[in-house]
Design brief:
Layout lengths: L24 E5 L6 H8 L4 E6 L1 H16 L3 E6 L5 H11 L4 E6 L1 H14 L3 E5 L11 E6 L2 E6 L5 E5 H5 L3 H12 L1 H15 L5 H16 L9 H21 L8 H12 L6 H15 L4 H11 L12 H10 L17 H10 L4
Parallel strand pairs: 1-8, 2-3, 2-4, 4-5, 5-8
Antiparallel strand pairs: 6-7
Amino acid sequence: MSADGINVLKKQVFDKSKWMQLPRDVVIGHDALVQLPAVCEDLKLGGSAYVIAGPRTMEVAGRKVVDLLAESKSVETAIIHSISIETIQEIEGKAGEADFLVGVGGGTVIDTAKIASFNLDRPFISVPTAASHDGIGSARASVPVEGGSASLEAHPPMAIIADTGIIASAPHRLLASGCADIISNYTAVLDWELSQRLRGEAFSEYAASLSRMTAEILVKNADLLKPNTEESAWMVTKALVSSGVAMSIAGSSRPASGGEHKFSHALDRLAPGKGLHGEQCGIGAIITMYLHGGDWRSIRASLRKIGAPVTPKEVGIDDEIAVQALLEAKNIRPERFTILDMGLTPERARDLIKMLYKE
């Protein structure tokens, strides 16, 4: 008697699943802002909007955003000066009836819109006025807390509208900071690979490849990234969006955040308000690339070409503070293993900071 027709055991199936959220519409280019009504129509976002901007960014782009939306929607606005838990809660209270939110500005504004819209379960549109870091298209948001800042998981924007004319007119320091943030993806991926080998951490080859390629493009084109040109704004903004997509594919910030980011967050605690986020990550990337045995000089040369700082002194931070930041980096997000978690001594940390100044 044959048992071929008897099926007792449940047949195994591939059941791995992942929910990836990505921006649906991305518009980057000259006068891209005028596409806002068409994007809202395409996404069917509803008839009421809540626009958040800073004092400066309201003048630069916010009023135009309000005028464009007011042609077909009811619009309310808020001007914020900083990001905090209290500010986010205030925005949530006022924007609760809106169909969608729009963040017009830099990291402070966009992260506020990102978290408020997530908590309200509303979509939001990202309208960056500077290309200073990859938060313009990612699901991560940074909120100041006692003793530093917290990186929170929210959701990515439903759409990104980046007007290169507006972005190009921003101070070049902001663009250079965005470049440094992207270039630091090199070492973030190396740290991720290290954690996979030593800790068995889940790793996405697709996300890592996209993140690494994005950094490579900026390094190879560092000579072309000039102040106040739309071509530079276009190239850097595309890279920032790609970095955000890599994080969405991975389901975490791992493709773009390693030891260099932990170093930056430690600096935020020890020397708040000195360096920009991307600037500090760029300096951290030089150090961590050296520790990984990679071409740290190429990283430093690229940062110099684009006008980003390569030493603590260039951002007004004392070398001893930078040494302390290297030593305290292991205490930032301790669950995220990086090369800075492998036991630096104070003497070795001082040598690493001195290295930044050597030709």
